[in-house]
Write a structure and sequence with these properties.
Elements lengths: L4 H4 L13 E5 L4 H12 L3 E5 L3 H12 L7 E4 L7 H15 L4 E4 L14 H26 L6 E5 L3 H4 L5 H21 L5 E7 L6 H7 L9 H4 L9 H12 L10 E4 L11
Parallel strand pairs: 1-2, 1-4, 2-3, 4-5, 5-6, 6-7
Bound molecules: hexanoyl-coenzyme A.
Amino acid sequence: MSYPESHYLSPVWRDGLFNGKVAFITGGNGTICSMQARALVRLGANACIIGRNVEKTDKAAKDIAAVRPGAKVIGIGACDVRNAEHLKNAADRCAKELGGIDYVIAGAAGNFIAPMEGLSTNAFKSVMDIDVLGTFNTIKATLPHILKSSTPRIIYVSATFHYTGLVMQSHVSAAKASVDSLMASVALEYGPRGVNSNVIAPGAIEGTEGMDRLGGEAAKQPNNSLVREIPSGRMGTVRDIADATVYLFSETGNYVNGHALVVDGGGWRRQPAF
Ligand code: HXC
């Protein structure tokens, strides 16, 4: 699907900012990550999009490539982040075909609403496996490549639920807390080798699969109760997240490492109960 540039990028960034850079993005066919990808590719990067569904991933790669003539965007489907070998093969292929990896977005996530009593051990484990093990596998597979880059950068797409805990989201809150912890360990362990490792924690972002799952129809109504709880007075947009991504990956974010950048209009401080 094609979107006007203003949907995923503010008009403040310089053309060619990411010329020669390569981004590796898990969850890249999802609503948030595909817009992060568009922003990076529009500003000059090439990219590799990782997903589980082959058709969806191929289509996302084509759509993302269309934002800039000459852009190279590879879709690697049938890649489950829970499988370390899948990810290693994907990262190696990305580096081989696009010349390396500079930026990683660990965006693949699993979510559904369920009370603790409604969660089987396997349900809890499934989300932990996708979010935590999947993030670890992503780091492990891409590190050998980004350590060769002059600007190795990692962004993890986390959340704010674990700052307070959240009903119906015990599994996701536990998983995202672990993602934040991995981010910090990578910052400490690989900061000395030039890696910047940061989290973006989106709040309620309109038009996303996550919002559909968590907020349902009610969250689509203007001035709904969720919006009224957000200090900035509006839902977030995918552009808010894409702009934060450009900030962290570009020179503007050079001295930001080991940080969780909350992009939520102040919402988590008044976390609603879904
Ligand atoms: C209770 C549930 C459930 C539900 C699944 N399960 N849905 N339990 N309530 N609504 C249970 C199943 O019964 C099963 O347990 C276990 O979870 C695994 O389910 P499977 O379908 O076999 O697993 P799988 O195919 O691997 O799917 C994983 C998934 C699924 C997480 C359950 O929803 C998924 O693939 N999601 C990926 C896409 C996604 O979630 N995107 C949203 C990201 S948005 P049993 O015991 O029966 O075996 C997001 C927003 C974060 O993350 C917040 C940002 C602000």
